[in-house]
Amino acid sequence: MNYSEAVRGRMEAARGREDIVLLAIESSCDETSAAVTCGRSVRSMVIASQVETHALYGGVVPEIASRAHVEAICGVVGEALEKAGVRPEELDGVAVTYGPGLVGALLCGVSYAKGLALRHGLPLIPVHHIEGHISASYIAHPDLEPPFLALVVSGGHSHLVLVKDYGAHEILGRTRDDAAGEAFDKAARVLGLPYPGGPAIDRLAVEGNDRALPLPKARQEGYNYSFSGLKTALLQGVARMEKQGVRLKDEDIAASFRRAVVEQLVDKAALALRETGVGKLALAGGVACNSLLRQRAQEVCLECGARVFLPPPVLCTDNAAMIGCAGYYRYRKGCAADMNLNAVPSMPLPKA
Known about the structure:
Elements: H1 3-13, E1 21-26, E2 31-38, E3 41-49, H2 51-55, H3 62-84, E4 93-99, H4 103-120, E5 124-128, H5 129-140, E6 148-153, E7 158-165, E8 168-174, H6 180-190, H7 197-205, H8 228-243, H9 250-276, E9 280-284, H10 291-304, E10 307-309, H11 313-316, H12 320-332
Parallel strand pairs: 1-4, 4-5, 6-9, 9-10
Antiparallel strand pairs: 1-2, 2-3, 6-7, 7-8
């Protein structure tokens, strides 16, 4: 029996089951992660982070990230399988992030997943990275069902998405330039804070006055965002106040910048909640760890009479559990790839 026949047989045998067990692999940026999932529950998850390595350079260095993935992936996958008490031949399939992301980093995960799938005759399930982030809320909230709005905010993405069904999405709005997480990183460098900038600004902002530095709100049509001008406005605003003899504390600058980013995000989400009438908002992506964003999302949903779904921080940052959950719904739709699957560094969110 060749690989394609073995895959068809396994997927046919699993048709209708809710206890599909997948090994999931995520390697789109600077974290190597593997998880064993069963439906939308997690049996094990392992994450090897490269944050300390890239902190030396003030950001992710793609070549270094790729090499670190190569060094870590065998151990991470082996540990995830061991913690779950599952042998490869007992799996129903292998889910893997194939884009978007850093091409070298993605290739490491995709290549490993292809080899494991081929060796054991397992279906290979390709997963879009942003769809994975959205699916993290399914793990954290078993009662969450589509349709709902997802605010996906990270270092590379800022999307407001209408999730019509499992794996079916409509992007209502997106950033026209920098992502929110990218804006936080730029502001952190201005303040001399360590990488990653978002958590550093969030920690510093807790002690600051978020009205100390007036910052403009970008005017974008519909549900779209713009964050590229905030760094310039930050620099100009600080310089202007210094000319007036006002020396702002770093805490006040951080708090003012954080508020400017968060208010833009939640204002558009509130508009979408009112205009779509969906009544549910889920946060997703690394910036969903931001304490002010989580607080304001809860307040806005209360004002709009909507429910808010907040995954725990470990499911907001890049992880394989979210890829396994997204892969589960892809698997049930029969979405398997062949051995020609390749990394796609830039790709749209699937509509269906």
